[in-house]
Each structure stands twice: as structure tokens, then as C-alpha cells.
Amino acid sequence: LIRKLTAYKIGQAVRDDGPQTHLVKAGTPTMGGALILMAVAISTLLWMDLSNKYVWVALITTLGFGIIGWVDDYKKVVHKNPRGLIARWKYFWQSVFGLGAALYIATSTSLPAQTELIVPFFKDIAIPLGVTGFVVLTYFVIVGSSNAVNLTDGLDGLAILPTVMVGSALGIFAYAAGHAVFAKYLGVPHIPGAGELVVFCAAMAGAGLAFLWFNAYPAQVFMGDVGALALGGALGTIAVITRQEIVLGIMGGVFVLEAL
After folding, report:
1. How far apart, in whole angstroms, are the C-alpha atoms of residue 151 and residue 241?
2. What CA–CA distance (Å, rounded) separates 231 from 239?
3. CA-CA distance, 18 to 48, in Å (whole number)?
4. Is residue 86 a contact partner of residue 72, using CB atoms and an 8 Å limit?
5. Strand partners, 128
6. Any idea which of 39-43, 170-174, 221-225, 231-235 has the lowest mean pLDDT?
7. What residues are paired with 11 via a beta bridge?
8. What is the per-residue pLDDT across 185-225, written as a single tens digit (0 to 9) for each?
């Protein structure tokens, strides 16, 4: 894939209003995130329970955000426009996929406890959001996570390792939430079927580690917006399904600060 991207001159376009040190990245093949999404999609479909609604919503949301990123990258590398897709259209389509996922997750909950905002480290503190509040929070978490990973990747081009680490951690939370005994012991809502998300998280971590081999300095390929927007959307979707929105925010904030 790297050879093909190089042959077609699909190289990174660097904005001229950024740090001068980023100019050396110009010409490095980008859109490598398409291969990550392909690996995640194929692996998940091979090993998941096809009747599980949570894995489907995570996979569809991820691929939806990936399409947005692909269009953005296409405009950058083919039309030679460093700014890519116009911001308002990018945000519009992010909102469409994010709100769609939020509505589906909210309507698929069966217990009031599954729409509560759980505060980490405090077993008895849970803020009831209701369906409307849960949809609003979910929307901001998914869209915000997508843009946060994209921001982190734009800072240093190495957002894949934080994504792998956070995704792996969320996979552990997903398994615990889907297991009745572990959920009761840890004081988190039991969400039947959420444990199947481990398949999706494992596929994302495996594809990310394979990509990291070629993305480490000196980078042979960047994942581009097609990878960053999609993986960020995936993390946000998994976080709200497993009710770990605040945990995702804490981990994401640490990685953004580290990149800065």
C-alpha cells in the first residue's frame, strides 16, 4: 500500500500556517488509515457475533467517520488543498453520524441505570441524564473524540499508539460491563452484549500496532483523516456504550497534553 500511495503521489499536504518543523512531512504517503479500517472491518466481521447490535453500531459509526476522513484526504492530495473538506461540511456529516449513533444507543437501553453518568472513583454518585441528556452527551463524546484524535494526529502524526492503548483499555471495560458478576463487583451498569465489543477493540489494537511499525519515525506513511476521524469516532462510541465517557475524557486529555 505504501508503494502504491507513493507511486500515485498521494503525499501529505502540510498547512503553511503550522509549525515550520512540520514542513519536512510534506510528500510522505498519507491515507494509510484506509488499510487500518479494512483490517478492523474484516477481522470484526469474521469473529463477531453478527447478531450483536453494539458491535454493529460501533463498526458502522467508525466506517461512517472514515468516509468523511477519506473525502477530506482526497481533497488534500488530489486537489492539492491543505485545508481539505470545508470545516462546516465536515462537522455537519460528523454530526449526522454522531447523532445517529447516539439515538440508536439511547433507544436500545433497557434500564434507567444505563443512561446515567457515572463518576469514576465514587460508587454512589451517578447523575441521571434521561434519554435526551444521554443523547446530547453521547453526541458530544463521539464527535469530540473524533476531532480530538484528529487533532492529536495533526500535532505529531503519532496518534495511533494512544489510540491502541485507550482502545485496549475500553475493551477491558466493555468485557467487565458485559459480564454480570464483574459488573456487580466493580459497581458499573451491567450491559448485556457489551462484552462482544472486545472483538472490535482487539481488531483495532492489532491493526494499530501493525500500522505503528511503518508510522514510527522516520514515518513511511501517515493514517490521514480517514484513520484519525474514524478511530476517534470508534473510541467515543465504545466509551458511551460501556458508560466510560469520563474515563475516555481523562485518558484523551492526558495524551493531548503529552503531544503538546
Report:
1. 23
2. 12
3. 42
4. no
5. 116
6. 221-225
7. 29
8. 887 888 888 999 999 999 999 999 999 888 877 778 888 88
Per residue in 123-159, pLDDT (tens digit) is 677 777 788 888 888 899 999 889 888 888 776 667 8
**Full-model pTM:** 0.85
| Residue pointed to by grid coordinates 473510541 | 235
By the 10 Å C-beta count (0-12 exposed, 13-18 middle, 19+ buried), 176 is classed as buried
Q: Which of 243, 127, 252, 120 is nearest to 191 (CA)?
A: 243
C-alpha dihedral, 221 to 201 to 205 to 33, nearest 10°: 0
Tell me, what amino acid is at 163? Answer: T
Chain centroid offset of residue 155 CA: 17
**In sequence order, which residues have a C-beta less than 8 Å from that of residue 93 and are 6 or more positions away?**
68
Residue linked to cell 492526558:
254
